[in-house]
C-alpha cells in the first residue's frame, strides 16, 4: 500500500432524524448498532462521484500521477451496464488504463485487494488504484427500521505498487471465501436477470435491500474471525503481533463479537461506525484513511483486516502500515 484516501458526502442523517419517520428511539438505534450518524448522498449524486473523490485523495497520498489499472469494488454501480470503473478512471485523468468493477458486497475491498495484488505479482500492472465505494442508501427502504438505521454512503481507496515482502506497506496473503447456498440472507431480489427473465414484474419492495439480521450476525462473526486467524497464519503472525484490527464496520455488536473471538483487546480495534455507519465495501479503506488522518494507526504497525458480506462472501489479510501523508 502506497497511498490511502477516503470520502463521505457532506449530508448527515442523525439518529434523531430517523426517529421522525421510524417507530424507534435514538437509544434503540445506538444500543443495537453503535451508530450515532451516517452520511448520505444528495439527490443526483452517484457512486462514481464518491469513488472519484476517494481515488483522487489516495493518488495524492501516494504521490502517484498515474496508475496502470483502476479496480472499483461496489454493490451500487451507477448503471447495470456499463461498469462504473472506466468512468472513474477517465474523470481522474486516467483514461486508457484497464478499469473494471468487482461485486462482493461488503467484502469487495478485500476481493479487490487480492485481484490487484494478482495483477501486480503477474506483471500485468505496476501500480493499481483500488477504490471501494457504495451509495448504499439507494438500495435501502427508508421505512425499514432494520436496515435504514445501519447503512450509509461513502468511499475509500488505496494505491498499490510492486514491492518487497519485508518493506512497509507490504500486504500479506489474502484469505477469501464464499457460500452461495446462503445468498438469500443478504440480497436485493429484483432488478437482475432472474427476476427480469421471469416474465413477472417485481413485487412491491423487492427492489430494496433485505437482510436476515440474526442469521447474518452469526455467520459474520464466525466467518470474519476464522478468516482472520487463517490470514494471521499465512502471514506468520500471532494474535499478539497485531497492533490494530480493522474489521468491516457492520455494527458495533458484530465488531465486539469479532474482536473478542479473534482475541484482540478493545484498545487495539479501529472503529468509525459511530460517525459513518455501515458503508458497505467502502468500510475498511474509509476506516484506514480516517485512522491515518487521526494518527490512530502509525507507520510500522501491524494491521489485521477482515470483512464479511452478501454472497455470502468473507475475507481477511494483513498489512504492515506504511508512512503515509494524512489523506
Automatic annotation (TrEMBL):
Cross-referenced SUPFAM superfamilies: Thiolase-like
Pathway stated in the Swiss-Prot or TrEMBL entry: Lipid metabolism; fatty acid biosynthesis
Keyword check for Transferase: yes
Domain Beta-ketoacyl-[acyl-carrier-protein] synthase III N-terminal: residue ranges: 100-180
Positions of the catalytic residues: 106, 248, 278
Catalytic activity: malonyl-[ACP] + acetyl-CoA + H(+) = 3-oxobutanoyl-[ACP] + CO2 + CoA
Enzyme nomenclature, EC number: 2.3.1.180
GO CC term, one of those recorded: cytoplasm
A GO MF term: 3-oxoacyl-[acyl-carrier-protein] synthase activity
UniProt cross-references to HAMAP family, sorted A to Z: FabH
Record remark: domains: The last Arg residue of the ACP-binding site is essential for the weak association between ACP/AcpP and FabH.
Subunit structure: Homodimer.
The protein's name in its UniProt record: Beta-ketoacyl-[acyl-carrier-protein] synthase III
Species of the source: Streptomyces eurocidicus (Streptoverticillium eurocidicus)
Lineage: Bacteria, Bacillati, Actinomycetota, Actinomycetes, Kitasatosporales
Amino acid at each position: 500500500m502506497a497511498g490511502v484516501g477516503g470520502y463521505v458526502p457532506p449530508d448527515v442523517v442523525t439518529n434523531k432524524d430517523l426517529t421522525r419517520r421510524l417507530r424507534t428511539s435514538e437509544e434503540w438505534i445506538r444500543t443495537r448498532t453503535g451508530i450515532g450518524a451516517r452520511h448520505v448522498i444528495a439527490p443526483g449524486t452517484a457512486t462514481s462521484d464518491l469513488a472519484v473523490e476517494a481515488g483522487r485523495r489516495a493518488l495524492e497520498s501516494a504521490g502517484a500521477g498515474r496508475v496502470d489499472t483502476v479496480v472499483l469494488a461496489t454493490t451500487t454501480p451507477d448503471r447495470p451496464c456499463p461498469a462504473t470503473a472506466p468512468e472513474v478512471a477517465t474523470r481522474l485523468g486516467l483514461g486508457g488504463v484497464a478499469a473494471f468493477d468487482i461485486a462482493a458486497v461488503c467484502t469487495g475491498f478485500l476481493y479487490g485487494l487480492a485481484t490487484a495484488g494478482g495483477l501486480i505479482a503477474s506483471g500485468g500492472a505496476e501500480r493499481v488504484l483500488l477504490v471501494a465505494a457504495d451509495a448504499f442508501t439507494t438500495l435501502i427502504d427508508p421505512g425499514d427500521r432494520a436496515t435504514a438505521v445501519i447503512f450509509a454512503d461513502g468511499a475509500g481507496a488505496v494505491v498499490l505498487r510492486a514491492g518487497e515482502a519485508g518493506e512497509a506497506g507490504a500486504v500479506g496473503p489474502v484469505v477469501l471465501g464464499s457460500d452461495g447456498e446462503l445468498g438469500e440472507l443478504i440480497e436485493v431480489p429484483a432488478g437482475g436477470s432472474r427476476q427480469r427473465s421471469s416474465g413477472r414484474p417485481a413485487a412491491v419492495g423487492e427492489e430494496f435491500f433485505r437482510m436476515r439480521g440474526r442469521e447474518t450476525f452469526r455467520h459474520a462473526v464466525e466467518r470474519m474471525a476464522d478468516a482472520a486467524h487463517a490470514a494471521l497464519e499465512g502471514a506468520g503472525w500471532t494474535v499478539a503481533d497485531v497492533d490494530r484490527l480493522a474489521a468491516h464496520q457492520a455494527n458495533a455488536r458484530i465488531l465486539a463479537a469479532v474482536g473478542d473471538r479473534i482475541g484482540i483487546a478493545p484498545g487495539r480495534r479501529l472503529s468509525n461506525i459511530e460517525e459513518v455507519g455501515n458503508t458497505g465495501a467502502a468500510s475498511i479503506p474509509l476506516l484506514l484513511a480516517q485512522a491515518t488522518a487521526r494518527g490512530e494507526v502509525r507507520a510500522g504497525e501491524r494491521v489485521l483486516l477482515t470483512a464479511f458480506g452478501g454472497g455470502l462472501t468473507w475475507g481477511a489479510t494483513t498489512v504492515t502500515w506504511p508512512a503515509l501523508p494524512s489523506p
